Amino acid sequence: MIHTREFVYSPSEHEAEAASGSYLMSLVAVVAGLPLPIVNLLATVIFFLSNRRSTYFVRWHCTQALLSQFSMLLINSTGFWWTVSIVFQGAPLTKYYVGYMIAAVFFNLIEFVATIYTAIKTRKGMHVEWGFYGALTNRFCKP
Hints:
74% of the residues lie in helices and 7% in strands. By secondary structure, the protein is mainly α. The protein has one domain. A two-stranded antiparallel sheet has the order 1-2. The chain is elongated, with a radius of gyration of 17 Å.
């Protein structure tokens, strides 16, 4: 579930742009390194590190984007290496593989839509918390 609300203070134009960029970074990385799941995480980590001393609004959203990319890395890496084993090592194509890949595509689509929505809202200065990731971000990122 995604919650949108006003932030504690009204972020400046620069802050809103940087916070929005933290989500867009993972989308741009999809284009650059689609078959390799680590590319999205690396792009988000680089953006996070470059903004770790920024304002709380920017740091918070960079942290949430980074945490979401960790779970997507696990999902996508499993699918990637399973596919590699089928294509190059002759592993059997099972119903479990097909089911996993359908679930992986579903989770990726949800994350893609949520990322675009969040990038648009944060660009407008709104604070968007993703259910699990928002709570986790609140534990890691302090004002």
